[in-house]
Design brief:
The protein has one helix at 8-20; strands spanning 40-45, 52-55, 61-66, 69-74, 79-85, 90-95, 101-106, 111-116, 122-127, 137-142, 148-153, 158-163, 168-173, 177-183, 189-195, 202-208, 211-220, 224-229, 235-240, 245-250, 256-261, 266-271, 277-282, 287-292, 297-303, 308-313, 319-324, 327-332. It has a single domain (8-20, 39-335), classed as YVTN repeat-like/Quinoprotein amine dehydrogenase (Methylamine Dehydrogenase, Chain H). The chain is mostly beta strands and 336 residues long.
Amino acid sequence: MTTIAPSRTSLALSAVCLAGCMTGGGGHAPTGQPLASPAVLATIPAGVPPTLLAISPDGSRVFAASSAQLAIIDTATNAAVATVPIAPYSTAVTVTADGTRVLVASLRASSLGIVDAASGTRLPPLPLIVDIHPGGFGRIAVAPDGRHAYVTNQLKEYLALVDLTARETREMSLDLRPSDVALGRDGRTLYVAGCKEFCTTGTVEVFDTANPATNRTFQVGPGPYRLALSPDETRAYTTNLGGPSLSVVDVASGATLATVPVGVEPTGLAVSPDGKRIYVANQGQRTLTVVDATTNTVTSTFALPYEPREVVLAPDGRRAYLSVRDAVLVLDTKRL
């Protein structure tokens, strides 16, 4: 069998398409109608896809960033309590650790959108690094103290290091095209997943935020797209577009413990709060894969009639929220 390595251009275009090419074709939009499955507890209408998700630390709100709209969903009623205008073509949404602010990045914006999580009020955006071709910003990681954020810029190969208190931004150049970023609980250990050259092997680089010049490197599957850590931070997980697969890495040694086959275009990744399950949303295959984190094997595959994009979990792990085109599904994880 001949394997064709994904090129720098093809992977960059894939990332852009995954960020903003789900507005038409492929499958049937749910249009607010519930999916006929006992695992689906609710179907909440959302805006123009793609819809990216974040959940508040206490689990009371889910934030669904669609193109030009942020829906704030009350998880007690499974209904949107507010919709907030945002920049089109969202690439990331996250919530600060204290649950007070929502940060949104967009493909063509050169600033970080900020929304008050309680009221839905738009706060002044925070300018990111602006050069000849602004925009291209993607995934966001926020420090536990809420003072700093790290925003990827894949095409320009850097992170924007954002001081949310001083409202200042500086640039951290990288030797890879970053697709996702995560922070350890200490707020100092920074993980960046991405591609070098043709990306037949993906890369995760680890930095000390106090001294970004020092780092170590893990190898993962081709075309890593999402990155997550286990709750105890002993494992790192990436979903890989070039596999498609889930890489399981031992953080201490950097060794790959397992490469788990998953569905086509694994664009969503979440780890259960107890660390026992990994959930992968496979956009191209229209499935949600559940992986046992102890054995690193697939335990179930939940089929969908339309493309899932992202998945987030409630703090108790009993509910999963899955974005599918123009809706957010609320899933009972015990019934998957």
